[in-house]
Design a protein that fits this description.
With 496 residues, the chain is an alpha/beta fold. It is built from eleven helices and 25 strands. The mean pLDDT is 96. Bound molecules: alpha-L-arabinofuranose. Alpha-L-arabinofuranose binds next to loops.
């Protein structure tokens, strides 16, 4: 398969925040995941150092918190200071001790070295509560909330720049669901008050790949937004646990660009595509499994049945090379659309369906973890033009799927050309013939970093790593490079 890469034609700057993450107060993501004072890995603040190390290693650039559905009845004021008020979380129907709140979250972000990104409660919350939160985090000393932060032991502002107004308030599954007009008004008033506290906030608001919903939001509040937030899970199993197999999963790679195209169109209709960027701030192949809660709230279900069902998210054999192949295709789509996608947050980062799984004696790096590792370590920051001379289209369960997914970028720091090449085929190797239209820099070597396992169904579990990163060096002369891409593999090709 022949592919032309034009290193002289840059198509955009890739914001590193496309490799972002999300963590919610759900199941074992916070308590028992990142924050576990009883763990033998816990540091003095109760954070698991093995998890912190793993998050640093994939250079988490931004971390969205505290939800997700959780946030839509969350009262941040009960989770700061010496007196924490336990809160019955009506979204996920458990008591949250509120021992992990804003100040612990900021401490977490500082330890990881990532930007905080707070999602506010636009369900039961008010514009005042959201702007009070901004006061608490960002004002130096003015007003009761900055003074409260200082009293709590944080004399300097937390300086939280990224804020999202609401989470999925468009949906009946969400506490405090709104109609499109209510939503536009609430976002406008909330954004107004938040910006009156900190005028240079970068605000997002919950949106949909649905022009009707976004129309009123942008008409009423677009002038105050820098981001528009959308979410996608491509293998939804909230109620019945039936993860898609490899074939079904790679069919979903056909859909990774749908929401981006729709939102791009709406933004262009308003002439906002240069000012408002997409924050794809929840995405994953795998939706979270949480029956009896989200969409079909069945009455009278025993709470133990509700909670035990969530353990199925912990089945590590679910997360195979289907997940790594899909994740790379999604991130490639973000690179191809880097002019309008400025942030993407894998949902979530720890436990549930995330790349890091915690257990008593350590962590498991699931297949998706290694995609983030190779892309954050090796992919360039300036997207360049790629032309695939011939696609390899195959029928998968009667759906036409292009077996190759490619994105390319140049690295500013050393001018290396980097190519993310995914072979989706479940069994066949694909020979990739690259013709590089070089710029003035002479390039002599190629290194390929590959995420793969023996079979398409390979996965990682406790003391059983089947998916990992391997690397291979090639010498080059001239401009043609030929590389074999193994089946079900993610490959980052670095040409220096
Ligand atoms: O399944 C988890 C939920 O997915 C998040 O809490 C919400 O934002 C989305 O609906």
């Amino acid at each position: 398969m022949k592919c032309y890469v034009n290193a002289k034609r840059e198509t955009g700057t890739i914001n590193p925040m496309i490799y972002g993450h999300f963590v919610e107060h759900f199941h074992r993501q916070i308590y028992g995941g990142i924050y576990d004072p009883s763990s033998r890995f816990a540091d003095g603040d109760g954070f698991r150092t093995d998890v912190l190390d793993a998050m640093r290693n994939i250079k988490v650039p931004i971390l969205r918190w505290p939800g997700g559905c959780f946030v839509s009845s969350y009262n941040w004021k009960k989770a700061v200071g010496d007196k924490r008020t336990p809160f019955f979380d009506k979204s996920w129907r458990v008591e949250d001790p509120n021992s992990f709140g804003t100040d612990e979250y900021i401490k977490l972000c500082r330890k990881i070295g990532c930007e905080p990104y707070i999602c506010t409660n636009a369900g039961t919350g008010t514009a005042e509560e959201m702007s009070d939160w901004v006061e608490y985090c960002n004002l130096k000393t003015e007003g009761e909330y900055a003074k409260w932060r200082i009293e709590n032991g944080y004399p300097e502002p937390h300086n939280v720049k990224f804020w999202s107004i609401g989470n999925e308030n468009w949906g009946q599954h969400e506490i405090g669901a709104k109609d499109t007009h209510e939503w536009g008004r609430l976002v406008e008033e909330s954004a107004k008050m938040m910006l009156h506290v900190t005028p240079d906030l970068e605000l997002s608001a919950a949106a949909l790949p649905n022009p009707d919903w976004n129309f009123n939001l942008l008409k009423m509040a677009g002038k105050r937004l820098k981001w528009i937030s959308i979410h996608s899970y491509f293998d939804l199993m909230p109620n019945d646990y039936n993860p898609k197999n490899y074939a079904e999963a790679i069919i979903q790679t056909n859909n990774v660009g749908n929401a981006i195209r729709s939102v791009r169109g709406t933004l262009m209709m308003f002439g906002l595509e240069k000012r408002i960027k997409i924050a794809y701030d929840e995405w994953n192949l795998r939706g979270w499994h949480h029956p009896y809660c989200h969409k079909n709230l069945e009455q009278g279900v025993d709470i133990n049945k509700v909670l035990s069902a969530r353990e199925k998210n912990d089945i590590n054999s679910t997360y195979t090379t289907a997940d790594s192949v899909f994740a790379a295709c999604f991130l490639n789509e973000c690179i191809r659309n880097c002019d309008i996608v400025g942030m993407a947050n894998f949902s979530p980062v720890v436990n549930t369906t995330g790349p890091i799984f915690t257990h008593e004696n350590g962590i498991v790096k699931r297949s998706t973890y290694y995609v983030f590792e190779v892309m954050t370590k090796h992919m360039g920051d300036r997207a360049i033009d790629v032309y695939e001379e011939d696609s390899i289209i195959e029928s998968v369960n009667n759906q036409q799927v292009n077996m190759i997914d490619i994105a390319a970028a140049k690295r500013s720091n050393d001018s290396a050309i980097t190519i993310s090449a995914v072979n989706k085929h479940d069994s066949e190797e694909i020979k990739l013939e690259l013709e590089i239209d070089h710029d003035s820099v002479e390039r002599k070597s190629v290194t390929v970093y590959t995420v793969n396992g023996e079979s398409k169904d390979s996965y990682n579990d406790i003391d059983n790593e089947q998916v990992s990163i391997s690397s291979c060096e090639y010498k080059i002369n001239g401009t043609d490079i030929s590389i074999s891409l193994a089946p079900h593999s993610v490959n980052i090709i670095v040409i220096k």
